Task: inverse folding
C-alpha cells in the first residue's frame, strides 16, 4: 500500500526499518515496518499537496509469532498547513493506540 504522499520519519532503527506499509509482505529479508532508533519523541510526517481531511490513523504493532513484542501504546496527532507551525488535534490529547 502506498499513500501517494511524501512520508518522513524522526529516526529509523536502520535502513531496513524505514517503511510505512501496513501488512506488507516480507521479501528478501527486508522489513515491512517503521522501527524507531530511539523510543522517545518519535514521529511520522505525511505531507499532502492540498489540505485533506484525515479520518483515521491505523497503528499496527508486532507480536504473536514474532520473537519481538513491540506496540505503540499512545500517540498524539498534529497538523500544519506549512510544515513549520504545528497544532495538536484536540488540544494535545493523548490517544490510546
Result:
Amino acid at each position: 500500500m502506498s499513500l501517494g504522499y511524501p512520508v518522513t520519519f524522526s529516526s529509523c532503527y536502520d535502513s531496513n526499518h524505514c517503511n510505512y506499509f501496513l501488512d506488507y509482505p516480507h521479501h528478501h529479508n527486508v522489513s515491512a515496518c517503521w522501527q524507531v532508533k530511539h523510543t522517545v519523541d518519535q514521529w511520522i510526517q505525511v505531507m499532502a499537496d492540498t489540505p485533506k481531511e484525515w479520518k483515521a490513523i491505523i497503528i499496527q504493532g508486532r507480536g504473536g509469532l514474532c520473537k519481538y513484542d513491540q506496540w505503540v501504546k499512545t500517540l498524539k496527532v498534529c497538523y500544519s498547513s506549512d510544515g513549520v507551525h504545528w497544532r495538536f488535534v484536540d488540544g494535545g490529547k493523548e490517544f490510546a493506540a
About this structure: DSSP finds no helices and six strands in the chain. The beta strands are 7-9, 44-46, 74-75, 78-79, 87-88, 95-96. Residues 64 and 70 are 10 Å apart (CA to CA).
